[in-house]
Target: Membrane protein
Amino acid sequence: MTGYALANVLHVLAVVIWVGGMFFAYMFLRPVAGQQLEGPARLKLWEGVFARFFPWVWASVLVILVTGFYLIFGVFGGMGDVHPSVHTMLLLGLIMMAIFAHVFFAPYRRMRKAIAANDTEEGLRRLGQIRILVGINTVIGLVTIVVASGGRLPL
Model:
């Protein structure tokens, strides 16, 4: 497998893990958990889900950055030589990464502290913040996939 092929495959897999995980959590797990679980149980569920999912997101972010920059600069010759869709993908990806970093270091950290202190109201408030930000990131991720898969197509 060439460097280009390996980087491309790893890049796509990392995007699928991250965006697919958010889509599943937001569209399927969240509504069912909200309907079937009371506040404390819902918080414990999400604490466990995030504890398992977020390391995969960090790994995905790293893989996306390394492979993306390798493809841009190592394969295609730099930002001046890539299609405008690549510029859009990079911008959207960086926005997503910033949103994720905020989720991880602010509301997620505060949600975990609230759970440890048995403060269900505060934990649910922080979970609500995470829900909004993950929803935004899911939409941005889906738009990025559209740009990536259709970026060179005439509209």
Notes: The mean pLDDT is 95.
